[in-house]
Amino acid sequence: MQTIAVQIKDNYVQNFISYVNKNSENISITKDKNLEYDPYFYERKKKLHQIRNDVKNGKMRLLTQEESDDEIELFFKELENN
Description:
mainly alpha; 4 helices; 0% strand; elongated
């Protein structure tokens, strides 16, 4: 069995549910709680894993809290000057 994401226009949902019910021996529907809370959950998860791997592999530097605060302060100062 394969899992896929399906987007259905609001006005077609009932027709789709009827189709699934008629073909229920081959199709099952489950709601993904992750997508209910965040429609971009899996895209964000993939991006965060990539960032984590880049930090582990040395491709990206992870800043300390102090370094991060300094960078943010510098950024806002530059915004004020422009």
